[in-house]
């Protein structure tokens, strides 16, 4: 049986189910070629919309799909392109929630205007409801639609409140607040009510007040709101004898033509000819202000009926950035390894997304979003490289069409674009601007130096070292070569020689690296002493331990690694000359210990039987203060004191570890001061040289075995 739907739905949607299946499959393949690194995401979106697109008859509630990730990962672009490929462009509405909040725009108003609905067009339909066939709504930048502020209080945003109704039931209540003519009529009726209480018997002859005194009363009460006629400044100047049109007290049309037209239009929707009949009564008969008011109230009650838009078969995309769901979302350093950042963001779960949503939305609103949450990880290094190659290829094809010149790029030019353009935490946007700023000037130079005669050219970089302030770009033509000085934006910041205190920073990062290796048996993935953020960092991310519950050993390890940079500086330099950038490390170390004590029972496993409380009395206030105490080193002490004592002990142990490997730290720091960074392979070369310290490759293997993830299982098996 061939499935059929309305031929005019979306204008261009395929009629048969087989055609729709084919188009969806083709759209998925196209998206995968246009959006690098998003194959899994595209498949998830396709599966989520398949029932709505292929078998829409079974849909009785809106299909809601939430896309959450970091900026620049292609969320909005994929959705926009998908609606084009499926032929849904004419029935798709895109809303920037940030813009609607900033401008206090009303969502329901915009829906009416976009789909061509005036309230007059459907106020007389059955039950006041208008049904849209298979609309698509895309609510972008949804993080701005938050209903819980940073303080945890309710944050009411009335302009976008209809979104939640639309997501929940698909039936959207529409008010007439945006309809100017209707508003004017309703406001006139309301204001007229107050006027009639005082003056119910003013004669109105065929919609005109003719008595000057009554005109004056009317203008004094309603003039500023509903009549375009100014009152005189003084009684003596109320009339210009030469021009009766200047007389402010000339006969006054009581109901203006715009309001009459609104009455006719709306009442005719209810019953053919009813509007004209009522209009004639109001304009062709003699009535009092009170009688007119009674008739207008009847009109208002007739045309003010419940009005709703039925979008129960809608497809709704909720698209937002949720940086707080990602562990290192605040780190905007381009020196961060793309693959490592991809691994971190890939480990974010739906539970993490919902936990982050709780900081912005009420529980019942999160429930309305459903479980169809699709998370966008960031891109891998390979994906970034492919995007660069695709964009360069596109640009060179267009260049050849215009100039006839075949241009190729040497491999190190692609490396330069990557080094200068990739910010893993900022997505793909910086790449395109970098390609434009680096490549386009030299494409122009090819035309100039080749005098328009060259048919081919190659662009390369003179040096593969991009951690310098300037390099040279080379243009190779068949018969000659040209070179140009090129300033590196990020390279200049990464240049080690631009930092006078780089060796102190190198010691700091080497301290982190040695402590991490000595405690885990693993080498850091990357050590950067001269970074674009004017500091450095040592990558101690371990994907094998992500998501695990910490033990006391893990807490101690993290505290020691955090302390190691600060303590390493003090091994070599006068304390007055040590750098001031260690504050975040020290704060992180203390917070790690503090959280462990308060949240995961750092002291309790060993000392629970000694847990007791004591009550002290404050001399100044006379209030009793309950202090929690534990036993530490054989003494009963308050928990806060126990934390301070433990922090001191961990500091001492870290200092001893670093002193035992001081020579290794020194040599690592000298290398980092010259090169700016090193990877895990280079780090292990220094460890293998064995400079008399305790850290050796064999020792690292033993430490790895001691901390094996199989430890718990082996104990249970009696090994």
Give the tally of β-strands. 22
CATH architecture type of the largest domain: 3-Layer(aba) Sandwich
| Biggest sheet descriptor | 5 strands, parallel
Rounded to the nearest angstrom, the radius of gyration is 37 Å
Strand content bin = 5-15%
Q: Give the neighbour order of strands across the main sheet.
A: 2-4-11-1-12
Global morphology: elongated
How many helix segments?
Answer: 28
Any low-confidence stretches, pLDDT <50, length ≥5? 1-12, 119-126, 605-626
Top CATH class of the largest domain: Alpha Beta
Mean pLDDT: 81
Helix residue percentage: 40-55%
**Can you tell me the CATH superfamily of the largest domain?**
P-loop containing nucleotide triphosphate hydrolases
Distance between the termini: 65 Å
Structure classification = alpha/beta
Please tell me the total number of domains: 4
| CATH fold type of the largest domain | Rossmann fold
Q: Can you describe what's shown?
A:
This protein has 719 residues and is an alpha/beta fold. It folds into four domains: 17-172 and 310-376, Rossmann fold; 180-238 and 245-303, no CATH class; 381-494, Helicase, Ruva Protein, domain 3, CATH 1.10.8; 496-716, Up-down Bundle (Methane Monooxygenase Hydroxylase, Chain G, domain 1). The chain contains 28 helices and 22 strands. The strands form seven sheets. The protein has a five-stranded parallel beta sheet, with helices on both faces. Strands 13-14-15-16 form a four-stranded mixed beta sheet. Strands 3-10-5 form a three-stranded mixed beta sheet. Strand 20 (624-632) and strand 21 (635-638) form a beta hairpin. The longest helix is centred in the middle third of the chain and has 23 residues, at 381-403. The chain starts with 16 loop residues before the first helix and ends with a helix.
């Amino acid at each position: 049986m061939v499935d059929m739907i309305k031929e005019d739905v979306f204008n261009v949607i395929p009629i048969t189910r087989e055609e729709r299946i084919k188009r969806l499959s083709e759209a998925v393949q196209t998206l995968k070629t246009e959006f690098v690194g998003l194959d899994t995401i595209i498949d998830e979106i396709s599966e989520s919309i398949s029932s709505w697109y292929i078998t829409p008859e079974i849909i009785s509630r809106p299909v809601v799909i939430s896309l959450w990730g970091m900026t620049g990962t292609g969320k909005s672009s994929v959705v926009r392109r998908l609606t084009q490929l499926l032929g849904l462009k004419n029935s798709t509405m895109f809303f920037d929630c940030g813009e609607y909040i900033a401008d206090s725009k009303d969502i329901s108003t915009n829906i009416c205007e976009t789909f061509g609905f005036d309230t007059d067009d459907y106020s007389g339909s059955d039950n006041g409801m208008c049904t849209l066939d298979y609309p698509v709504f895309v609510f972008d930048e949804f993080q701005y639609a938050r209903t819980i502020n940073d303080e945890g209080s309710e944050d009411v945003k009335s302009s976008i409140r209809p979104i939640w109704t639309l997501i929940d039931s698909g039936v959207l209540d529409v008010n007439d607040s945006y309809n100017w003519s209707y508003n004017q009529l309703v406001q006139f009726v309301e204001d007229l009510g107050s006027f009639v209480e005082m003056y119910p018997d003013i004669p109105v002859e065929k919609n005109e007040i003719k008595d000057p005194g009554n005109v004056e009363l009317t203008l004094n009460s309603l003039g500023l709101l509903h009549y375009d006629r100014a009152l005189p400044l003084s009684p003596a100047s109320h009339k210009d004898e030469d021009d009766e049109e200047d007389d402010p007290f000339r006969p006054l049309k009581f109901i203006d033509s715009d309001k009459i037209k609104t009455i006719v239009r709306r009442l005719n929707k209810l019953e053919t000819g009813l509007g004209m009949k009522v209009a004639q009564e109001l304009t062709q008969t003699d009535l009092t202000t009170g009688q007119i008011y009674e008739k207008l109230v009847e009109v208002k009650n007739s045309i003010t009926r419940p009005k709703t838009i039925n979008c129960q078969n809608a497809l709704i995309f909720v698209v937002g950035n949720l940086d707080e769901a990602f562990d290192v979302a605040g780190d905007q350093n381009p020196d961060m390894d793309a693959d490592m950042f991809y691994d971190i963001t890939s480990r974010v779960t739906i539970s993490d997304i919902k936990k982050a949503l709780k900081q912005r939305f009420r529980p019942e609103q999160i429930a309305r979003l459903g479980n169809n949450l699709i998370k966008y990880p960031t891109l891998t290094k390979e994906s970034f490289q492919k995007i660069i190659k695709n964009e360069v290829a596109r640009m060179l094809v267009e260049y050849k069409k215009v100039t006839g010149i075949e241009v190729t790029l040497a491999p190190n030019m692609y490396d330069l674009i990557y080094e200068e353009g990739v910010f893993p935490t900022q997505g793909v946007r910086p790449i395109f601007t970098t390609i434009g700023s680096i490549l386009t000037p030299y494409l122009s130079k090819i035309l100039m130096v080749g005098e328009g005669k060259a048919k081919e050219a190659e662009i390369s970089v003179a040096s593969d070292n991009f951690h310098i302030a300037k390099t040279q770009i080379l243009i190779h033509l068949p018969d000659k070569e040209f070179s140009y000085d090129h300033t590196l934006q990020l390279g200049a910041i990464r240049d080690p020689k631009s930092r006078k205190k780089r060796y102190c920073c190198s010691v700091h990062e080497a301290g982190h690296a040695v402590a991490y290796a000595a405690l885990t048996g693993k080498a850091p993935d990357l050590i950067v002493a001269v970074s674009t953020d004017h500091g450095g960092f040592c990558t101690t991310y371990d994907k094998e331990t992500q998501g695990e519950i910490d033990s006391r050993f893990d807490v101690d390890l993290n505290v020691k690694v955090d302390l190691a940079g600060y303590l390493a500086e003090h091994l070599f330099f006068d304390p007055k000359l040590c750098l001031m950038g260690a504050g975040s490390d020290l704060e992180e170390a203390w917070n790690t210990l503090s959280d462990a004590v308060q949240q995961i029972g750092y002291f309790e496993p060993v000392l629970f039987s000694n847990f007791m409380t004591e009550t002290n009395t404050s001399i100044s206030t006379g209030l009793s203060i309950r202090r929690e105490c534990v036993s530490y080193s054989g003494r009963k002490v308050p928990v806060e004191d126990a934390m301070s004592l433990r922090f001191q002990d961990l500091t001492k142990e870290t200092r001893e570890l670093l002193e035992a490997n001081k020579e290794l730290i020194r040599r690592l720091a000298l290398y980092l001061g010259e090169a700016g960074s090193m990877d895990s392979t280079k780090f292990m070369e220094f460890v293998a040289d064995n400079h008399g310290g305790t850290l050796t490759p064999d020792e690292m293997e033993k430490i790895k075995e001691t901390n094996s993830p199989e430890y718990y299982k082996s104990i249970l098996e009696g090994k």
